[in-house]
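Following up on my earlier message about 2-acetamido-2-deoxy-beta-D-glucopyranose. Here are the inputs again, as you asked, copied directly from the submission form:
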Amino acid sequence: MATINKTLKPKAKPGSQMFGLVMCISIIALLFLISYQLSTNGFSIISSSISLRNLSRSKNQRQHTLHDKYLYWGNRIDCPGKHCDTCAGLGHQESSLRCALEEAIFLQRTFVMPSRMCINPMHNTKGILHQSDNASSAESRWAAMSCAMDSLYDMDLISETVPVILDNSKMWYHVLVTSMKLGARGVAHVAGVSRVDLKENSHYSSLLLINRTASPLSWFMECKDRKNRSAIMLPHSFLPSMASEKLRDAADKIKARLGDYDAIHVRRGDILKTRKDRYGVERTLHPHLDRDTHPESILCRIKKWVPPGRTLYIASNERTPGFFSPLSIRYKLAYSFNYSYILDPLIESNYQLFMVERLILMGAKTFIKTYKEDVNDLSLTDDPKKNTKNWQIPVYSTDGEGC
Ligand SMILES: *[C@@H]1O[C@H](CO)[C@@H](O)[C@H](O)[C@H]1NC(C)=O
Ligand SMILES: *[C@@H]1O[C@H](CO)[C@@H](O)[C@H](O)[C@H]1NC(C)=O
Ligand SMILES: *[C@@H]1O[C@H](CO)[C@@H](O)[C@H](O)[C@H]1NC(C)=O
Ligand SMILES: *[C@@H]1O[C@H](CO)[C@@H](O)[C@H](O)[C@H]1NC(C)=O
Ligand SMILES: *[C@@H]1O[C@H](CO)[C@@H](O)[C@H](O)[C@H]1NC(C)=O
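Thanks, got it. Here's what our run produced:
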């Protein structure tokens, strides 16, 4: 013991150097922690390629407090049409939701998400939604024609980029009660105030809650014609990537079973609809789409992108059994129904299935969309996706180029 004491005591000087070193390391660690905090609170940089895979594994539950400020746009996503039975599919609702989330990012506020999302029966062939005899009340009809927001999305994962709470949460109740107590200092029902004013005018910026439900514009319209798209933008892939954990897990399992695969998304169904003009001639908005989404055309078109023998995952709303079978002469075909043992116990609505399939499509080595949406996209057709309102005669002939 004595020897140890003796050897330690003379080391008093190196000890103070040690102290300096420890301080130095602590400061570096602190700086690192601060920069980590800054980068995780999400208001910093939203790049168009958010790294999601490993983000999704972290199980940080976000804490929301009354020190945060809140933005409320209403209790349901206001898609064009406003009613569930006229409401468009998930993609359209996501455009509206993304617009609202972008505003929350801009205002650095926590967004209050509707706890349920409208699901158009037309988009839900998965099980007949329980139509109660009692369906006279608007509320019970709404419950039957909607699905829980958190059955689709992972709120904690979204909160890593833009903080969100649900409008059926304790926190929201807490915010409501507090804002009522604070009165005019707590909440403002704003209409016709620009988002720049909401951010910069101290009358608004200091409020606990901004209630935007009075805006006559539908959610989607708030962003549609915004001049400055470059200012803030969540990538299109943001919400698709924010799928709830069990949906992500299902997609991961299926992707693991698919191994190395390519994928095509073949939109047919409702978008093929034709109508007769006044001379009784059938017309369509996408004149080549029916032809281009037939298996013979697909085989020809994708030959240069997908080598023979590859596993090809097909996501489609085509319901004719065996419709895509001709593709099996060159590819190993896979569909969602090949994995019904994974999906059936899990999937309650078509929106959930759609979310899983999107993750599978995103994971493909080569992914071919129906329409070209972006300069780098591969597509089955050259028809534009955007509704041109130009009803044309469908074209079935090929221009003799062969394959
Ligand atoms: C994610 O984490 C796993 C290990 O958990 C690692 O193998 C993988 O490379 C990581 N991926 C990315 C994109 O960082
Ligand atoms: C009718 O709806 C109300 C409220 O939605 C509910 O409390 C009640 O149990 C329902 N009755 C039946 C017979 O389903
Ligand atoms: C938001 O404002 C609308 C009026 O525009 C009002 O009907 C609604 O109760 C308000 N909601 C909250 C949570 O303040
Ligand atoms: C567009 O956004 C940038 C960056 O936020 C800003 O500097 C610029 O003033 C905006 N332009 C318009 C026309 O609002
Ligand atoms: C999927 O099911 C179809 C039809 O039963 C079959 O031909 C195909 O080989 C299956 N694909 C996979 C990857 O299991």
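One observation from looking it over: The two ends are 89 Å apart (CA to CA). Hope that helps, and feel free to reply on this thread.
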